[in-house]
Amino acid sequence: MDAMRDLVVFIIKKEYDEIPPDAIETAKKVVLDCIGAIVAGWRTDVSKKVIALVKHWKGKGEASIYGSGIKAPLPWAVLANTAMGRILDFDDLHEPAVMHGGVAVVPTGLNVSEYMGGVTGKDFLASVVLGIDLACRILRAPLANPLNSGISHSFHGGTFAATAVTCKLLGFDETLFMNAMGIAYSQIAGNTLCVEEGSTNIAIQQGLSSQAGVISALLASKGITGPRNILEARRGGYFYTFHSGTFEKQELTRELGNRYEICQLSTKPFPCCKHIHTSIESIASIIEENGEILPENIERIEVGLNERGYQLVGQPISQKRRPKTSVEAIWSLPYAVATAVVKKNVMLEDFTESALENSAVLGLADKVFPYINERIEKSAKGIISPAAVLVKLKDGSSYNCEKWIVKGHPQNPMDMQEVARKFRYCAAYSRWLRSSFKIEKIISICNRLEDIGDMKELSDLITNNNHSEG
User: 256 - beta bridge partners?
Assistant: First the structure.
């Protein structure tokens, strides 16, 4: 029997009270962090274009598009809200699975809860925990490096996760749930070409993944059937179609019910690719320990990474040193490292189109030299890259720092107060949530989600259309 059945049956049977407290507490942080990413992402032109298109389509008002004051058919609302949550790359990441977890489940769960009505905070939290668990287990199993083929774990996982969340909230039995997962598999898509070319489609692909999950569940509820052996079938199964049949089956169910993948999510302190974070913190440590380093005194900055990180955020070097779009900048190590030196921080404001013209940052980016560090590649092959940073000054002096674990990682997690601080910053950046009362109310609700009788209470707060275009 395909391992998907084991995962589905586990989700169907598992109730909130059986999920350990650490997973529940992590889920609360994931929810608040993802809402913050959505709120900040609302400000972008991409988000406003998607909202305008959905508004043009009209249709039955089943679920809210956040920050717009409008309701849309459930799949379109999920598309828009998920895209908003991903566009700035400020949402969390499951590093072993290389999957953006929260954005795959939180917008979907909130919209499905609104669509249904009467969904409790406990049921919502359980769906978030279990949806992430299923998708991340699937994506921990492949042995091949996704960079070799260009597929995207995050987009594939988003479809699996969104389907699972929707099915759990709709109370599907095994037959309906398995049909939905089979239908979802037929819609699996997504690649990393958007990263290579710096296109804003990166957010749309994430939205389409979640939308596919919702549509799959709704189709199953109407009696549409799907294939069942979707993971392990040798002809057409996920691991054979997308991963050349190389996978570790035991990863799918290892410690199922005892280990929850949501606890392995990393919360981002910086709004850029996670492969860059160790470099930013290394630079920050060098400055903290040695005093201000003036950009004009720097001869060169060498940044050693593993091959995966080097290829994603260090190449091609000419593009990385002169990003032309926000997406290109978000995936540029030279740009982010130069920003960290010049501005002493890396913030959302640094990835706007106007910020990309900062001559001081661009001048220093020319002095940033990424390379493959063989020691790091040997010890950290295929994972989110550590960084070995060496700053050489024109007077011949030099400083170095190496970081493997940074703030937000499961081994150095943000607490709820730190996530709340990040949320307030996202709200201030967005210019949509201006009411301090509503901001603090959202934080308060996320802190006590298990006590909420109807998730509509949270959805109503983030549906607010009393915003300024800024």
Answer: 259
